[in-house]
Amino acid sequence: MGRQVVPLRILRGRGIDVLDQTLLPHREVRRELRDVPAVCEAIRELRIRGAPLLGLAGACGLAIAAESDASTGGLQAAAETLIATRPTAVDLGACTRAALARALAEPNEARRAGVLWDFAEALADARRREDEAIAANGAALLPHGCSVLTHCNTGALATGAFGTALGVIARAFGEGRLERCYATETRPLLQGARLTAWELRQLGIPGTLLPDTAAASLIASGRVQAVITGADRIAANGDTANKVGTYGLAAVAARHGVPFYIAAPCTTVDLDCPDGAHIPIEFRAASEVGGFGEQRWAPEGLDAYNPAFDVTPAELITAIITERGVARPPFGEALERLVRLQRS
């Protein structure tokens, strides 16, 4: 069904080859990243994005660092630099720290780069298995003949494999359950209009694009039977950070009795974060609001409120779909059990 989207290729011993997501859907340009500053720039500028893919990029970035400096101090500094690029998505920090721990467990510095490339390749394989399991677990929740609404981008471009929420949608379509996917534009950077719409076309899934401001009326109309999004960090109590605008979708879905699902791997669950109030929220430049690219429609110099994420309270979430199973309220016990399974 459709063609395979490969947003990141590991070039062992050299670097990574990435699809520049800022240029989609009009241009498909691949860039080879051979040092940590280039990886950090790609993460910061959203050439690479999506919580699971950021985790893989962080692990690869550390392997790249080890090719030139595999000392303990050098790897620790590289890890700190990579993690600081985007604070909200837990996978970037968690995977980079895990890679660092694996490398430092090898006393021979000459072998550390190989250890890190092995770690990155194993992580990429794990992502594929996780995405397939998330898709199967999530598709089973959707009724036959349904239409769903999604927000931002959660397909292969966000994970490097099959996708989380969009993976569920693709699996449901393949099983004959899904008739249509509605996708928000996802302002101000238009990840839905540029990326999700592009992936829906690649997958052959009937899609309808809508402005973010029309989502509430769409849910109220009865045209969608579920709302499903990804997540960048899930707190221990189930509060979930995702692309800004997710909270509003969950609130409207609850008002109209439409199930609201989160799809994410267990690595996105942060048991050390007690609730949403403790999730750091990234704010981005005011220049991203009031225009796109070189085109401006707002007065220059006007301030802007531009959080990249918001937090959806756990009580608005119907279920959290992971590769280890589906968590339902109360989320605290359910998430802890799934994460323990993931670690065992």
Structural account:
The protein has helices at residues 36-44, 51-68, 72-83, 90-104, 109-139, 156-159, 165-174, 191-203, 215-221, 246-255, 331-343; strands spanning 8-11, 15-19, 30-33, 146-150, 178-184, 207-210, 226-229, 233-235, 240-243, 260-263, 269-270, 291-292, 295-296, 309-312, 319-322, 325-327. By secondary structure, it is of the alpha/beta class. The protein has 2 domains: 8-131, translation initiation factor eif-2b, domain 1 (Four Helix Bundle (Hemerythrin (Met), subunit A), Up-down Bundle); 134-343, Rossmann fold (3-Layer(aba) Sandwich). The longest helix has 31 residues, at 109-139. The two termini are 34 Å apart.
Summarize the structure.
The protein is an alpha/beta fold.
Distinctive features:
Four Helix Bundle (Hemerythrin (Met), subunit A), 2 domains, four-stranded mixed sheet, globular
Overall number of structural domains: 2
Number of helices: 11
Strand order of the largest sheet: 6-5-4-7-10-15-16
Shape: globular
Rg: 19 Å
At the third CATH level, what is the topology name of the largest domain?
Answer: Rossmann fold
Instruction: Determine and state the CATH class of the largest domain.
Output: Alpha Beta
Distance between the termini: 34 Å
Mean pLDDT: 95
Structural class: alpha/beta
Low-confidence stretches: none
Number of strands: 16
Sheet bearing the most strands, described?
Answer: 7 strands, mixed
The CATH architecture of the largest domain is 3-Layer(aba) Sandwich
Assign a percent range to the helix content.
40-55%
* Percent strand: 15-25%
| CATH level-4 homologous superfamily of the largest domain | Translation initiation factor eif-2b, domain 2
